[in-house]
Amino acid sequence: MDTAFGKSLKKYEENMDLYLKTIKRSNYKDMSIIYVAYLDSIGWNFDGPALDMELLYVLYAGTVKFDPCICTEAVTHLTDKILTNIDNKKLNGLLLVDFKKAFDLVDHEILILKLRMFGCSPLVLKWFTSYLSDRYQRTYFKNTSDMRPVKIGVPQGSILGPLLFILFINDLPSQLSHSESTMFADDTTVLTEGSSIHDLNVKLKLVAQDLSTWTQQNRMVTNTLKTKTMLIHSPQQLKNTSDRSLSVTLNGNILAQVKQAKVFNA
Question: pLDDT digits over 239-250, tens only?
Answer without folding.
Answer: 766 778 899 999
